[in-house]
Amino acid sequence: MSAQAGRGKVLRPDELAARDRGTGARTVPLATTARGATSFLNGITSFEPGAVIGHHMHNVTESVIVIEGDAVVDIDGERTRLRRFDTTLVPSGVPHHFENASSTEPMKIFWTYASLHSTRTLLPSGEHSRIDAEGPEGQGGPGAPPSLVREVARITVLPGRAEDFEAAVAEAAELFQRAHGARTLTLERSHEDPQEYRLDIVWDSVEDHVTGFRGSADFEEWRRLIAHCVARPPEVTHFRHVLTAF
Asked: Residues with Cβ < 8 Å from 148, sequence gap 6 or more?
């Protein structure tokens, strides 16, 4: 069964391993790639009284909610006092950090990154790491994330069959969703050529697609659903992530 096709999960921060940031801050990753996240990452960082994390930036947008205590956020040199439930939205490439504004009380933030491929670059050291690989390895944490693969299928439909094809893909979505290793499915239509589509499906591995799904009855049903719409068999290629710049 795919990571998202079950009944969901309950993640309890006090039952998960934390990573000591070494500056009076501890981070508990929650939704991670290894735990089934498909498009974002989140977690909680706890700050001891007076704790400060290093100035840094990310390659994607980050949002942070103060869930306990009072904080100070420094966004590119502009410092702002935050209270409980205040929320920040920091674009990619913008230097920032958080501080516990109290010298006596703890503080906590809930953070969300807009991509599975989020990274952190510490300033001014330049130390660079992937967020999803920063789990407390050896302590039950997520460790290194899976190396996902993206299936890209280029599909040309017959004249007058675009609406039928889109309806067929919508009907077939549950076939993919229950396939082992399937993470997400996205269909896009060409602006220049309305008869051309691109179907993107993220899998845990190439084998999950070419051996698992293609060898199943659901694959035969998928082909049956679109057979009357397509001009020729889809052109399929597999890709692995290299870079998320912003």
From this structure: 33, 116, 183, 202, 203, 204, 240, 241
Peptide bond into 124 cis (omega under 30): yes
Instruction: Look up residue 154 and give its two tokens.
Output: 């280029």
Name the pLDDT band for 139 (thresholds 50, 70, 90). very low
CA angle 76, 37, 62 (to 5 degrees): 10
Q: Decide: helix, strand or coil at residue 58.
A: strand
Task: Provide the sign of the torsion angle of the four alpha carbons 181, 246, 100, 72, taken in this order.
Answer: negative
10: how many CB neighbours lie within 10 A of its CB?
5
- 217-226 vs 162-177: helix axis angle to the nearest 10? 170
What pLDDT, in 10s, does the model give residues 147-178?
899 999 999 999 999 999 999 999 999 999 99
Q: In what order do the strands lie in the sheet with 25-29?
A: 19-20, 25-29, 41-47, 107-113, 62-68, 87-90
Q: What is this structure's pTM?
A: 0.89
For the chain, count helices (H), then strands (E).
Answer: 3, 16
Cα atoms in the Cβ-side hemisphere of radius 13 Å centred on 204:
21
CA atoms lying within 13 Å on the CB side of residue 243: 2
